[in-house]
Amino acid sequence: MATQKIPHRLYLTEDQMPTQWYNLRADMKEKPDPLLNPGTGAPLAEEDLYPIFCKELAHQEIDDNTRFTDIPGEVMDIYRVFRPSPLVRAYNLERALDTPAKIYYKFEGNNTSGSHKLNSALAQAYYAKAQGITSLTTETGAGQWGTALAEACAYFGIDLTVYMVKVSYEQKPFRKAIIETFGSTVIPSPSMTTQAGQRILAENPTTGGSLGCAISEAVEKAVTSENCRYVLGSVLNQVLLHQSIIGLEAKAAMDILGEYPDVVIGCAGGGSNLGGLIAPYMQDKLTGKANLRPIYQLQIFLLQVSICPLKLLTTSWIQKKSMTQNLKIFLSDSPLMLSLVLFMKIPAWPKF
Q1: What is the mean pLDDT of residues 144-161?
Q2: pLDDT tens-digit map of 172-186
């Protein structure tokens, strides 16, 4: 492949799709500190999470040792509707940046929800259905996660209540419409439907809400409703597990091209897009397999911004740091999130 023109898009076949998720924590020599029970201060037991999460998801949240988890057949069947997602060579971006870098991106927007969020939404809805759970609750900010979970719940026949940050609810009526089209209920948060929402509104009647408010309401609804559980689209260990399919596919596609990154640069928010993509490369780093050539070692950088679009920041980074470097760059782009992850192939390490 190195001597041929690299195609604009590379799709794995369905037979080449990963059939297992990868748990990064299993390869960590130093494990993360345990979650603590807020009531007792003691390490959280799996059973402590059962009132909030489905049992299998609670297990995945606590499990530090299982390296690979089989993707359930029903989840694989739906994955095949929109996966594998393509690896794209960004020739036009290379020209626009006037850089010798070879840039690739893993496009995760080719599904009805428009983002990578569906990867975990389907898994969480599946485990809820398998346990006999009849309804779920969640929060959403801009509406991306709420849309993905609404689609997953529609497929598995589960009722869903979405608490959407009020300011986004008012600014993004089309997101609300899509969620409702899938049969879910959308409530602007904070609301008068929960005690948490009532208290927040009593203190600040004109608040536009926040994810914290919406999470509080969704959790309260879950633990006070019969046969109901709460699910979340980012941050959690279980979510990073499900999103590892992004990186596993990406690595398989890059292997076909004979490519391997020396540097990974990711825009990190809640971490699901970033964590999913870097998972197999972090495994190589943790297990000592990341040295493709003796003098280079895989480097991982996270970029986080609060006031400017992530794409602009990342493009600026490329222009400033790599304009004169012969790089091979791999981006993972979720189009509605302005989120990028870069893979860089560096023959001569730049001085930052």
Answers
A1: 97
A2: 999 999 999 999 999
Give backbone dihedrals phi and psi of 28, rounded to 5 degrees, phi first: -80, 125
- Distance, CA of 69 to CA of 18 (rounded, Å): 11
Clarify whether residues 17 and 149 are in a common domain.
Answer: no
Residue 197 belongs to some domain of the structure: yes
Query: Does residue 16 contact residue 84 with C-beta atoms inside 8 Å?
Result: yes
Among the residue ranges 93-97, 236-240, 255-259, the one predicted with the least confidence is: 93-97
Last residue of a domain, one of 181, 200, 226: 226
Enclosing domain of residue 53: 9-33+48-113+237-344
pLDDT tens-digit series, residues 12-35: 999 999 999 999 999 999 998 988
DSSP 81-139: HH-SPPEEE-HHHHHHHT-S-EEEEEE---STT-STTHHHHHHHHHHHHHHT--EEEEE
On whether both 145 and 175 belong to a single domain, the answer is yes
pLDDT at position 305 is: 53
Residue type for 115, please?
Answer: S
pLDDT at residue 327, rounded to an integer: 54
For the chain, the residue count is 352
Over the stretch 248-291, which tens digit does the pLDDT of each residue have?
Answer: 999 999 999 988 876 666 667 788 888 888 899 889 888 888 65
Give me 7's structure tokens.
């195609």
CA-to-CA distance for 212 and 132, rounded, in angstroms?
28
Per residue in 120-150, is it b (16+ CB within 10 Å) or e — as a string? bbbbbbbbbbeeebebbbbbbbbbbbbbbbb
CATH of the domain at 153: 3.40.50.1100
In a domain, 121, yes or no: no
Q: Do 166 and 257 sit in the same domain of this protein? A: no
User: Do residues 162 and 139 touch, judged by C-beta distance below 8 A?
Assistant: yes
* Count of structural domains within the chain: 2
Angle (deg, nearest 10), helices 237-257 and 118-131? 130
